[in-house]
Amino acid sequence: MADQDWDIETDLLVAGAGPGGMTAALVAAIEGLDVVVCEKASQVGGTGATSAGTLWIPGNRPSRDAGFKDSPDEAAKYLDALIGDDDASGHRKAYLGDGPGVIDYLTEKTDVQFLPCGLHPDYRNNMPGAASAGRAIIPQNFDGRLLGGDFERVRPPIAEFMLMGGMMVGKVDIIGLLGRYKSFGAFRHSAGIVLRYLTDRLRFKRGTRLVMGNALVARLFYSLKNRNVPVMFDTPIGEFIMDGDTVIGAVINSKEGARRVRVRKGVVLATGGFAHNPKYREAFMPSPTPHYSMAAKSNTGDGIVLAEAVKAGTDSERHQGAGFWSPVSVTTREDGSEGLFPHLAMDRAKPGLIAVNELGRRFVNEAVSYHDFVEAMYRSHETADTMPAWLICETAFVTKYGLGAIHPQTKNLSKHEASGYVAVGETLEAIAEKIGVDAAGLRDSVERHNGFARTGTDEDFGKGDLELNRFNGDASHTPNPCLAPIANGPFAAMAVWPAEIGCSVGLSTNPDGQVLNGEGTPIGGLYACGNDMGSVMAGAYPGPGTTLGPAIVFGWRVAMHAAGRSPGGGGRS
Length: 573
Ligand SMILES: Cc1cc2nc3c(=O)[nH]c(=O)nc-3n(C[C@H](O)[C@H](O)[C@H](O)COP(=O)(O)OP(=O)(O)OC[C@H]3O[C@@H](n4cnc5c(N)ncnc54)[C@H](O)[C@@H]3O)c2cc1C
Hints:
Blueprint: E1 8-15, H1 19-30, E2 35-38, E3 55-56, H2 61-65, H3 72-83, H4 91-109, E4 114-116, E5 136-139, E6 142-143, E7 162-163, E8 167-168, H5 171-178, H6 184-200, E9 209-210, H7 212-226, E10 231-232, E11 237-243, E12 246-254, E13 257-269, H8 278-284, E14 292-293, H9 302-309, E15 323-332, E16 338-342, E17 353-356, H10 370-381, E18 389-394, H11 395-401, H12 414-418, E19 423-425, H13 428-435, H14 439-455, H15 467-472, E20 491-503, E21 514-516, E22 522-528, H16 548-562
Parallel strand pairs: 1-2, 1-13, 2-10, 13-22, 14-20
Antiparallel strand pairs: 3-5, 4-5, 6-9, 7-8, 11-12, 12-13, 15-16, 15-20, 17-18, 18-20, 19-20, 21-22
The structure holds flavin-adenine dinucleotide.
């Protein structure tokens, strides 16, 4: 192969600059490898840029230092209960065992810095080994100005998550903004971030105070830049160059044309999974195949397509489900384009809201995790149309708590009604007629729910029973922070549809991220991480940070293996 005509020679080629790929590239560079990143889009970040940026890392040091006690062993019990205790491949052991060390590694050697979330319950906290606090961490806010002109290269968050057309806000900011006239501290914080934003807008297209997933990807990108790791934009990976069954290089397609890249250690597939690949959606996802996806549009399953061409396999048989789900409502943006708002934590758990199917019947504890909510939609849909499901509340609820992309303190819903985002009616019957739901069923469901609200016990679905429910409810509301009567019109209804925020099914790999062929043998020189790698969670959703935690930990493991820092490692050679 020596006479191959190579355009670029490097140790490791990483395809995809999301959290998974950038972590692999960064760690490989720290471990002394030459690294090139090729990114299909014109910006880094992928879906990660639009995410909440939370990582589920049991036993992590930021939480331990803040006084939260936990251990990977307790988390193992929880995952055994949630997923089953079969970890023959060793992925779970590797993930839990290395997680805290990976966070220490990044903290010590890079600008990727984290904060403990503190109280942030696991999503099934009634199971053995589940924790209420200390497993979730978030990236520290990041000052986008540090990137200079390359700030433009960070994919922005979804429009619905920004205020005033470009200001990012995290949970603390939202609390501050809502309470800005109630305390001096809240006012000062709110005034500070708004002033910073207005100043930013003199120079930048959006605010540079980055939070959540945007801070995570910006921190990874900044660290890559500091290590002089090149990121080639608008450059998708095209095909592999093989020597027998071993990957020795790849063709990447830059705007200037195709380039042949020789890799001494390997190629890492981190192209974000199959979200926008209709063939894989239909093959792996439940029926009816969800129409909507929250993933970056550039995630078209390229990594899986390429790997399958060299006899790699996917791991769908291992998974409880193919996606990590969220209910989404469909917005119409000011420019007329369609947006998606994920109903993650702000509205469903609050008191005074129910979700119903076409029969007007409740089908779920509305305050369960976004993933569990969508799974319940699918179960309900087997007997009654639940695509969409309808969130029902008083318009006074919308003013108090917000609903989807409608912010709290919104009194006039006419704009949202006119765009079709929300339906409003003076009576439950009027609402039912507008949205095509059985009126008698809806009235009956509301009256039954209102009885539960009075006693504080939801006898049908247990809304408010789980700690997660109460965490996202309204602590000031009694006797149950998640239950209040829906009694006084006007009423509001909003349609929610299933969508995935990440794919669970991916390529079969070993715990070092080496992609396996049909016989279970590693394909030389080929790695996968992020959502290109079949998830260690196997389609279950234990808690906040279920995809980013593994993306970072296995990104690290891939790099350590390629760099020869793990047993049997050293890439393809
Ligand atoms: C609203 C929202 C909130 C979320 N919050 C969380 C959270 O708090 N915690 C959590 O764990 N998860 C969260 N997620 C999910 C999480 O963002 C994704 O699972 C994660 O970003 C996947 O990382 P990745 O690196 O695999 O892929 P991505 O982040 O999607 O990055 C993949 C990159 O690969 C590039 N690419 C695609 N094809 C090619 C190609 N052929 N060549 C080169 N590059 C290519 C893409 O352009 C993209 O930049 C959230 C998702 C959403 C939508």
